[in-house]
Amino acid sequence: MRIIFHIDVNSAYLSWTAVEQLKNGAGVDIRTIPAIIGGDQKSRHGIVLAKSISAKKYGIRTGEPVANAFRKCPNLKTYLPDHQMYREYSRKLMEFLRTYTTHIEQVSVDECYLDYTSIASRFSSPEEGAAYIRNYIYSHFGFTVNVGISSNKVLAKMASDFEKPNKTHTLFPDEIQKKMWPLPISSLFMAGHASVAVLQKLDIHTIGDLARMDPAILSLHLKSHGKMLWEYANGIDNSSIESEPSQAKGIGNSTTLASD
Fold it and tell me: Which pLDDT value is given to residue 44?
């Protein structure tokens, strides 16, 4: 059986900023206090890019305006992003993972899929392999990752989003009903706000509700995206690991104006 890992850095921008600060003699690890990485409010890019667990307890969400976050937590600490530094931490992480296998698909600066099948003989179980990778990353680089384990990419991705930080979770097909179906529909990979709103009108509130739905009805309301979501809810995903980045299909560019 094919085994796929989804490896995701926990609060990447915040974690990498914290590690860099501690290297430079900081007295406080910002991962342990209410803290966020936020854009420059003066230029109107003031949204939360990453948050600590303490900040999350105040209801602060990634993507919301920094001003909102301060209303929820007045003693919040905020730090500007350093994308060059993040790319460097990302490069080190991917370089380390490629010492195990080249069958890696990097999907963003802080997450990737890894085909464990080719290195399975090195470890007694996938869980042991994941634990070794997590522990090495923490001891050598100072930040933590979650590892989701499954037989395909979408289930591995869902598994890595379970309890955080620094955890390994499995989500194999025989675990879907117990671990995934009770979750709210908004937790399903690729179920955005618009899709969730349509599904809720159809009285679909959990991933299990969606999985048991007639896919023809979903296609009627959400076209091909509805069928894809139904497949994901049932753990169906035959996509392969794309080791080499595919050519960009299109390039977008947008600008946030500094004033109305």
Answer: 53
Burial group, residue 60, by CB count within 10 angstroms (0-12, 13-18, 19+): buried
Residues 204, 210 contacting (CB under 8 angstroms): yes
Q: In the block, which residue shows the tokens 């600008």?
A: 255
Structure tokens at 190: 């690729």
Q: Which residue has the tokens 């290297």?
A: 23
Q: Which residue has the tokens 């025989």?
A: 174
Nearest to 147 by CA among 162, 138, 52, 18: 162
Give the Å distances, CA to CA, from 185 to 84, 193, 225, 229, 234. Answer: 35, 10, 14, 10, 13
| pTM for this prediction | 0.90
Q: Active site includes 163?
A: no
The mean pLDDT of 236-246, rounded to a whole number, is 84
**Annotated catalytic residue, options 64, 88, 105, 111:** 111
**101 touches 7 (CB < 8 A):** no
Condensed to tens digits (0 to 9), the pLDDT of residues 93-120 reads 999 999 999 999 999 999 999 999 989 9
Q: Work out the angle at residue 30's Cα, subtended by the Cα atoms of residues 29 and 32, and round it to the nearest 5 degrees.
A: 75
Please compute, for residue 223, the number of CA atoms within 13 A of its CA located in the half-sphere on the CB side: 0
Give the H/E segment covering residue 108: strand 104-108
Contact 44/258 with Cβ under 8 angstroms?
Answer: yes
> SS3 for 191?
coil
The string of pLDDT tens digits covering residues 8-53 is: 999 999 999 999 999 999 999 999 999 999 976 665 568 999 999 9
